[in-house]
Structure to design on (138 residues):
């Protein structure tokens, strides 16, 4: 799969957005880093999948609660309530992107060092439970 230049920039922006959000949480919920991380994450996501698909992803009826919580959390971060905003935003993020966790777990299990660790007996069961994936019948 080849990425266009805009999608490559989108991957970088999304990665930097996640990094800034992580730094904002580590540095005692620094509002500026969290706000910058949110802006970078949303702009990167828009560049990766396109503006129309981004709108349709957030506007789907079954994702409405997640969208409202995610965007409400971003608004709370901008209004200088970073701790509560991050909690609300995390709830919305899990509702929006929770369907992708089994796919991400499958991808991580194919990476040599990480896959060995994730396939250990107790860790495999815990990771499957957290990601919501079910063991294959085959």
């Amino acid at each position: 799969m080849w990425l266009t230049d805009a999608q490559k920039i989108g991957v970088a922006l999304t990665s930097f957005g996640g990094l800034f959000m992580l730094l904002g949480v580590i540095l005692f919920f620094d509002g500026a880093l969290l706000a910058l991380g949110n802006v970078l994450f949303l702009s990167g996501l828009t560049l990766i999948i396109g503006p129309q698909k981004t709108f349709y992803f957030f506007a789907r009826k079954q994702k409405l609660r997640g969208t409202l919580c995610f965007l409400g959390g971003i608004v709370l971060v901008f209004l200088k309530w970073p701790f509560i905003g991050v909690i609300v935003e995390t709830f919305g993020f899990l509702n929006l992107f929770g369907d992708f966790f089994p796919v991400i777990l499958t991808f991580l299990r194919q990476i040599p060092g990480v896959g060995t660790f994730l396939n250990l007996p107790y860790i495999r069961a815990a990771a499957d439970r957290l990601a919501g994936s079910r063991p294959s019948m085959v």
Remarks:
- The mean pLDDT is 92.
- The CA atoms of residues 61 and 67 lie 10 Å apart.
- Helices lie at 5-26, 31-49, 51-59, 64-78, 82-97, 101-109, 112-118, 121-131.
- The first helix runs from residue 5 to 26.
